[in-house]
């Protein structure tokens, strides 16, 4: 009995000693964006164009003290997925190099900015004719939802009798942010029916290498890249791209050269005026020209991020079967380049399959598109519909 009592006392003393040691042991304290936290924190971040998951760390300032000493310079962040950001919550994990006590920061990416809505506000139509959104001349922009035009709506206009009729046009992005504009419709017995209007998404951040251009998404008038750089190709043709795209292209070209692959660039950056002349020339002889040539301000060539390529001086429908096409399919995405108008996706892109038309979107997005077999239209549609939760 005495041995049991002594043993029990020893266990109790040991437990007490351990507890006292833990109380006296050095502890880690964190601060996140100036606020003291224990082992977790939450931060809200406004979405920015071309934002990748690793970029979220730029919005989180973490400091740490250990035993009263500032040890912020020893903080490390665990690796995160190399992916483009969508709206939702991401976890960033931090810890000290010599300590396993982690800090988890929940970063919620949100969009609180209303769409931009610019439009004509006065219209005329004939009595009895339907006047709806298809008659409006509208330009919109949203910092996240590139398909915001799909939500365009307006109050009904009564055209059964003549007179000035008022309506309100509304547009709502995928986060529920709304913009509206009041319009007036002059309904007259002697007027013609209102003509079809035009609705465009006008890109306001053309420096975004991931932006989408197509028949409904266009560049603002007058914009041109200011960092055009000459690129390498087998024909020394002197073509130009924006610097980031040019650097990535030259890296790709050097890799192809090492494997004996010939790459000629047939077309790259185009001015708005050049694109207009090209498009109007095609249209003059072919009413279906819009299926393979872009209206000015909707052409990716005007971005300075696109190269049409060949193994000679011509564009080839069967490029994908050539040595060049096979090499590009296997390697182009690794350098940030994608076939912008893939086979079988004409209904989505609006253009015929163009195996020669390569677009620079950056390595991160190119890898995602390659892995998931998506064109840009599909990527942005999925991004709008889904959130990262």
Automatic annotation (TrEMBL):
Q: Which SUPFAM superfamilies match?
A: Hedgehog/DD-peptidase
Q: Which organism is it from?
A: Candidatus Merdibacter merdavium
Q: Name one GO molecular function term.
A: peptidase activity
- Domain named D-alanyl-D-alanine carboxypeptidase-like core: residues: 239-362
A Pfam family of this chain: VanY
Q: Which InterPro entries match?
A: DD-CPase-like, Ig-like_fold, VanY-like_core_dom, VanY/YodJ_core_dom, Zn_M74/Hedgehog-like
Question: What protein name does the entry list?
Answer: M15 family metallopeptidase
- Keyword line: Signal
Q: Name one GO biological process term.
A: proteolysis
- Secretion signal span: 1-24
């Amino acid at each position: 009995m005495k041995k049991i009592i002594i043993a029990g006392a020893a266990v109790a003393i040991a437990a007490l000693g351990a507890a006292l040691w833990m109380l006296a042991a050095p502890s880690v304290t964190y601060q996140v964006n100036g606020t003291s936290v224990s082992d977790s924190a939450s931060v809200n971040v406004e979405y920015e164009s071309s934002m990748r998951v690793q970029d979220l760390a730029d919005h989180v300032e973490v400091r740490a003290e250990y035993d009263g000493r500032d040890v912020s310079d020893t903080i490390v962040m665990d690796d995160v997925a190399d992916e483009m950001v969508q709206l939702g919550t991401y976890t960033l994990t931090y810890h000290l190099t010599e300590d396993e006590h982690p800090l988890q920061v929940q970063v919620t990416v949100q969009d609180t900015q209303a769409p931009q809505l610019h439009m004509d506000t006065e219209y005329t139509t004939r009595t009895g004719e339907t006047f709806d959104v298809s008659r409006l001349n509208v330009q919109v922009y949203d910092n996240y939802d590139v398909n915001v035009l799909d939500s365009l709506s307006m109050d009904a206009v009564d055209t059964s009798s003549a007179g000035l009729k008022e309506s309100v046009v509304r547009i709502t992005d995928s986060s529920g942010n709304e913009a509206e504009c009041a319009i007036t419709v002059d309904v007259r017995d002697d007027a013609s029916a209102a003509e079809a209007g035009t609705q465009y998404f006008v890109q306001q951040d053309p420096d975004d290498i991931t932006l989408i251009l197509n028949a409904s998404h266009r560049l603002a008038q007058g914009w041109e890249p200011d960092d055009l750089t000459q690129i390498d190709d087998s024909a020394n043709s002197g073509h130009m791209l924006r610097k980031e795209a040019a650097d990535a292209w030259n890296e790709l070209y050097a890799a192809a050269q090492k494997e004996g692959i010939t790459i000629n660039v047939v077309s790259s950056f185009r001015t708005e005026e050049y694109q207009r002349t090209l498009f109007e020339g095609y249209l003059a002889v072919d009413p279906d020209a819009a299926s393979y040539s872009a209206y000015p301000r909707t052409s990716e060539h005007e971005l300075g991020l696109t190269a049409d390529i060949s193994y000679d001086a011509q564009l080839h429908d069967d490029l994908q079967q050539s040595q060049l096409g096979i090499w590009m399919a296997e390697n182009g995405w690794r350098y940030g380049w994608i076939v912008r108008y893939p086979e079988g996706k004409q209904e989505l892109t609006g253009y015929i399959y163009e195996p020669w038309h390569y677009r620079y979107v950056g390595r991160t997005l190119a890898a995602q598109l390659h892995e998931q077999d998506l064109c840009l239209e599909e990527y942005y549609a999925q991004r709008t519909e889904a959130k990262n939760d």
